[in-house]
Amino acid sequence: MHSMGSLLRNYFLWLFVFCASGMTLRAQVAAPPAPGSSTIPLSRIPRVHRAPKLADFLEDHAREAELSVSDFREYQPGDGIPATEPTTAYLSYDDQNLYVVFVCHDDPAQVRAHLSKREDFDQDDGVGILLDTFRDFHRAYYFASNALGVQADAIYTEGQGYDFSFDTVWENEGRVTKDGYVVWFSIPFKSLRFSHAPEQTWGIAVYRAIVRKNEYDYWPYITQRAEGITQQFAPAGGFERISPGRNMQFIPYGLLAGNHFLDQPNPPNAQAPPVFRDAFEHRAGLDAKFVVKDALTFDVTLNPDFSQVESNDPQVTVNQRFAVFFPEKRPFFIENAGFFATPLNLFFSRQIADPQFGARVTGKLGQWTLGALLIDDRQPGRRFRGGPYDTRAADGVVRVTREFGKQSFLGGFFSSRDFADTSNRIASLDTRLKFSQNWILYGQMAHSWTRQDQNLPQLCQQSTATAQGPGSQQGNASEAQLDYLGRHWNLTSKYDDISPNFCAELGFIPRTDIRQAQQVVDYFWRPEKSKIVDFGPLTRGLVNWNRNGQIQDWEADLGFQIDLTRQTSFYATRSEVYELFAGLGFRKHASLAGFATAPKNWLALNGQFTTGIQENYFPGPGVVPAQAFLGNLKRINLGFTLRPSSRFRFDETYIYYRLGGRAGTTPAGFSPGQNILNNHLTRSKLNYQFSREFSLRLILDYNATLANGGLVDLQRELGSFLGGPTQPTKHFTGDVLFTYLLHPGTALYAGYTDNYTNLSLDPAASSGVGLLHSPTTGTGRVFFVKFSYLLRY
């Protein structure tokens, strides 16, 4: 195995140097210089006294002056060739708003458009505009709509992509016509941040998506031959005497909820048996927003609204060596989350469970960007009612960056979490350096200081050093990543070094004590005028040592992908893997094949099948000696979407995960082929859109874990439930939600959730609960009504 490690080490060193030189690969993708704002003449957007309306374009009414652009060029699948369908965008502005109207020619029978909830039209045709209001070539506002006027908005940041947590107030309308469709935008300057200069020039790009052709068209011409898009925007001037105004926002909210749930003490106590309880909750709070110097946003919150109406998508969480990542969905945290992002995930807001007060500042001043958050968390102290540790945690995060050069920046990060006598602090420096059109280097160095308390749970359970007990510890983490991003080649060389003592209580760092190198090399051919959009091989290699120089993992993947029109993709991958776990080395492999397609306006399908070998990380009491062992892995992911009408959407998801006995590795006393663990997850999701504002959503979730108790330890697999040793292995949840969303900030929600498991009250059991065959016991029932209203000045 050491010879394999030496071979991989030499391979990564050679490949990293080879990619860094770039000579051979760049020669193969030689292309004309990428379009950029310096080569595009300045366009002036005229000021109007009468705002344009959708009817003006539907009925050919007289209009005031406007900037008209129609030379849309393909970004994908072609590169710079004229768009297959004619599009014209008309731009103008007045004292309060920027107006954009798209006139899109097409066969109306071919236009894909559905009436759906906000930001849920990924399978639809649409149009949009990107606005680099500071013209810093780093980030831009994104506003988009489908042909029926369903909105989406986001912040695009170079190196991070689109952040759809950004929601703001703007108006639009859309109409399918006999010649295609027309969409009208009205974007208030109050919803944007920009400098306070008396005359301004912004970077602007407008686009159109024709999904049945996998086609994305832009004006001005934007190419994939260059990494990044904001430097390719067209300069647009003519903005004079505009301002967001005072721009103060207040969002009061109220929540009423009734709960019926099974309550079992933690830890189990004979004097306090599990019982069903009822509770009534009423809560009110306020979020406020203030804008200073047109660019800096201050948010304060009192008893913040952290109830989430979006549920987590189903994921396999059994037989996972490391924590499974579930994205943040709470409104306060997802807004402007990009201001706190770094290459290492040092701030993961789901670590803050139950805050009461919070304040945040985000924004941009010149070439500086700032994000700062101060908030409390009542959750840690709830385990110590009435004791000396019945207090709350104080959390703070600060992120500052200085932009320079060609889309480069230098950033600093600091976070702190204090609870009782424990604390965790992190300081970090990071950078993004863009050397040319295609080469980008990311780097980060971080240091953590952690103070433990012997009377409290240890911080950062993934750290091997915390076993040393109370006291202080320090740790380091670093990451370097070199990317080449082009139209054909995509290359990534990445190196992570995280010490055993590194601890990020407010972050998501599932593994420490690693020195890990990764290399990804992909190449895509892109034939012109073909139903094949692109195709090519995918390769990935990884090798990981601990601080003692011992190989922990290595992996080699070889795959192939082909993308076709009608949003169709096929892919296959073969992986060879070595993993060291609990002092034992395991040799594994996996074969994967999958597809996704949307052949019709009303139908989308996806599927993935995996077969291979994987460890059983948590052996049961029948395994002697008690150590991990290999089993046969099968995993199936299937899903489809039906949209029989423009208002109706039905999504079905099924995930099957099985680990079975394997000849030669199955423990003594058990036969090969015997079931170790089966996990079935299904989700049925129905959404009916009565109007753009009003919708009904129904979700039915089922999660069943069927396991051989002698081969797998379900106590460790499923974690503590209700504080007792008896674990529910089957869950069924029904979730109904009525939503009236007038615009972001003003909404009415009415929801009902009912959760069933296969638990039953059993006084004879040590924990007071027993197991049934089916999930027929209601263990959690909630009905809630929530209302919020945006006051904007």
What are the defining features of this structure?
mainly beta
Total helical segments? 5
* Helix proportion: under 10%
Q: What is the terminal-to-terminal distance?
A: 67 Å
Strand percentage, roughly? over 45%
What does this structure look like?
The chain has 793 residues and is mainly beta. The strands form 4 sheets. It has a 24-stranded antiparallel barrel.
Task: Draw up the topology in text.
Blueprint: H1 2-21, H2 23-28, E1 43-44, H3 54-58, E2 67-69, E3 73-76, E4 87-93, E5 97-105, E6 126-132, E7 139-146, E8 151-157, E9 161-163, E10 171-177, E11 180-188, E12 199-210, E13 215-219, E14 234-240, E15 248-263, E16 275-292, E17 296-302, H4 331-334, E18 357-365, E19 368-377, E20 393-404, E21 408-419, E22 422-434, E23 439-452, E24 471-485, E25 489-498, E26 514-523, E27 532-545, E28 551-564, E29 568-581, E30 584-600, E31 603-616, E32 629-645, E33 648-660, E34 675-689, E35 694-707, H5 714-718, E36 730-743, E37 746-757, E38 759-761, E39 769-771, E40 777-788, E41 791-792
Parallel strand pairs: 1-14
Antiparallel strand pairs: 2-4, 3-13, 4-5, 5-11, 6-7, 6-12, 7-8, 8-9, 10-11, 12-13, 12-14, 15-16, 15-40, 15-41, 16-17, 17-18, 18-19, 19-20, 20-21, 21-22, 22-23, 23-24, 24-25, 25-26, 26-27, 27-28, 28-29, 29-30, 30-31, 31-32, 32-33, 33-34, 34-35, 35-36, 36-37, 37-40, 38-39
